[in-house]
Design a protein that fits this description.
single chain, about 425 residues, alpha/beta, Rossmann fold, 4 domains, 3-stranded parallel β-sheet, 14 helices, about 40% helix, elongated, disordered N terminus
Length: about 425
C-alpha cells in the first residue's frame, strides 16, 4: 500500500521555493516508484497533512484508518511519500504491523536494485548506510543488551546499538576511501580525454524523460531504455561523429527527481562530476508530461547543488524537449510557441521516432563550432589519403576536381585539429599550404 502526503509549501533549505506539483502527479509518481521495484500496489491515496505529529506524522484517526486498510489488504509494506523520522517510522510500524518506508528509503531500494557496476553499488551502499545510521533505533528491541569483548568485538559494557553504529561508521569510511579512488580514476580518464581532445556532452534530466532512448538514438548503442524511473544509474559513454567531422563523447547519467535525497546527491557525486566537467549539458525534458515545468525546476535545483546555474546566460546547457510524438496538434502548437518565446530556444525532438534528432545534432555542432575556421586546400592526386582524412575529421563544404586529378577542397575545421592537419600535410609533402 502506498500513502503519499501533501507536501509543505515552505522553501526547502538550500533549494529555494520548491516547484509546485499537483497532488495527482505526486501520487502517480510515487506509485511509479513503487512499481519500479515490482511492488504490487493494492491501495494508494493522498492524505491532507495540516500539522505533522512528532510521534506518528499522521493524526490518530488516520493511523487507525490505515491500520484497517493494511489488515484488509494483508499488506506487508506501507510507503509514505514524505520524510519520516526514525521515531515516526518505529511507531507506525508498531501500529500497522508491517514495514514502513519513506520516500528516501524507497528511492534507495530502487537504486540498490538498479546499480550494476562496482562503483554504482558502492555509491548506493554508502547512501544506504548513511540513511540507516540514524535509524537503528526503530528496529532494535535489545538495546539494553550489553556486550563484552576485546578489540573490534566491542569493549566492556558496549551496547549492541553502539557496536552496530560503530561498524556502520567503519564501513562508511571504507567506502569513502574506495570512492576517493574512483574520483581519481575518473579525473585521469577526463585528463586522457582532454588530450584527445573530444568535447564531452552529458545528458541529464528528470527520471523517465527519455535520456537513455536519446543516448541510444545518438550513438547507436543499446543501453537499456524502458518506461521506468531510474533505469540508468551507471554512467555510459560513447563517441559520436558530427557532420562537421568533429567527434564528441556523449555521457548518459542518472535521472534526477524532486526531493532527491541529499545522501544520494552526496553518494553519487563521483558520477555527477561527469556532468560538472562536461563541455555541454543536454537537459532532456518530457514535454508531454503535465508537470514538465515543475520537473525542469527540479532538475535545475539539482544542477544548482552541483554548482551549475542553469539560468545563467553562459551556462553550457542545451534544452531538449523530448516525446514530441506524444503531443496532440494543440499541445504541439502550444509547445512550439512557448519555445519560440524562450531566450535560448530548445530543440523539439522524439528520441523514439527520431524526429528532430538531426536538428539536435546540428545544434550541438553549432555550440562547438563557433571557433571553427574555414580553409581551402589543393590536394594533388597522389594525396588521396589526405582528402579522406578531411572527410573524416572536418566538414567539407565544397570540392572541385581539376582535369589533372587535383582536388580543391573548402572545409570547416576545429582549431584543436589544426595540429593534426599539419601532420597530415607534412606526410603528403604539402607542409604549410593550408
Amino acid at each position: 500500500m502506498l500513502v503519499p502526503f501533501r507536501r509543505d509549501r515552505r522553501p526547502a533549505a538550500g533549494r529555494g521555493a520548491p516547484a509546485p506539483r499537483s497532488i495527482e502527479d505526486r501520487l502517480a509518481e510515487a506509485v511509479g516508484l513503487a512499481r519500479a521495484i515490482a511492488l504490487d500496489v493494492c491501495a494508494a491515496e493522498t492524505v491532507p497533512l495540516a500539522r505533522p505529529r512528532p510521534s506518528t506524522l499522521l493524526g490518530s484517526g488516520k493511523v487507525e484508518e490505515v491500520a484497517l486498510l493494511v489488515a484488509e489488504c494483508q499488506a506487508g509494506l506501507v510507503i509514505i511519500d514524505h520524510a519520516v523520522t526514525p521515531i515516526q517510522q518505529r511507531n507506525l510500524e508498531k501500529a500497522w504491523g508491517c514495514k514502513v518506508l519513506d520516500r528516501t528509503g524507497l528511492i534507495l531500494e530502487i537504486f540498490g536494485e538498479r546499480a550494476l557496476t562496482r562503483e554504482g553499488r558502492l555509491q548506493v551502499e554508502l547512501a544506504h548506510l548513511t540513511y540507516q545510521k540514524s535509524r537503528l533505533v526503530r528496529s532494535w528491541t535489545h538495546l539494553e543488551r550489553q556486550r563484552g569483548g576485546f578489540g573490534f568485538l566491542g569493549g566492556p559494557g558496549e551496547a549492541q546499538i553502539e557496536t552496530d553504529r560503530r561498524l556502520i561508521e567503519e564501513r562508511i569510511e571504507a567506502i569513502r576511501r574506495d570512492l576517493a579512488g574512483v574520483v581519481k580514476t575518473r579525473a585521469l580518464h577526463r585528463a586522457g580525454r582532454a588530450r584527445v581532445p573530444y568535447p564531452v556532452v552529458a545528458i541529464v534530466g528528470y527520471t523517465n524523460a527519455g535520456k537513455s532512448t536519446l543516448f541510444n538514438r545518438l550513438t547507436g548503442a543499446s543501453v537499456t531504455a524502458r518506461d521506468q524511473v531510474f533505469e540508468t544509474l551507471d554512467p555510459t559513454m560513447r563517441e559520436v561523429k558530427l557532420a562537421s567531422g568533429r567527434r564528441i563523447i556523449i555521457s548518459d547519467t542518472v535521472g534526477f527527481i524532486s526531493d532527491l535525497p541529499t545522501t544520494l546527491v552526496a553518494a553519487f557525486r563521483a558520477t555527477l562530476e561527469e556532468v560538472v566537467a562536461a563541455d555541454l549539458i543536454l537537459h532532456v525534458r518530457d514535454i508531454s508530461h503535465p508537470e514538465t515545468e515543475a520537473q525542469r525546476r527540479d532538475v535545475d535545483a539539482v544542477l544548482a547543488d552541483l554548482g551549475i546555474d542553469a539560468a545563467a546566460a553562459e551556462a553550457p546547457i542545451l534544452e531538449v524537449c523530448n516525446k514530441a510524438d506524444r503531443l496532440d496538434p494543440t499541445g504541439r502548437g502550444e509547445a512550439e510557441r512557448a519555445m519560440a518565446r524562450s531566450e535560448r530556444p530548445p530543440v523539439l525532438i522524439s528520441a523514439l521516432t527520431g524526429e528532430g534528432v538531426a536538428a539536435l545534432l546540428v545544434a550541438i555542432d553549432a555550440r562547438f563550432g563557433a571557433r571553427d575556421e574555414v580553409l581551402s586546400l589543393e590536394i594533388p592526386p597522389r594525396a588521396g589519403r589526405l582528402l579522406s582524412w578531411l572527410h573524416d575529421n572536418a566538414e567539407v563544404l565544397a570540392q572541385e576536381t581539376a582535369e589533372n586529378g587535383a582536388v580543391t577542397a573548402r572545409f570547416r575545421i576545429d582549431p584543436a585539429l589544426k595540429g593534426k592537419l599539419a601532420g597530415q600535410l607534412k606526410r603528403a609533402g604539402l607542409s604549410g599550404k593550408a
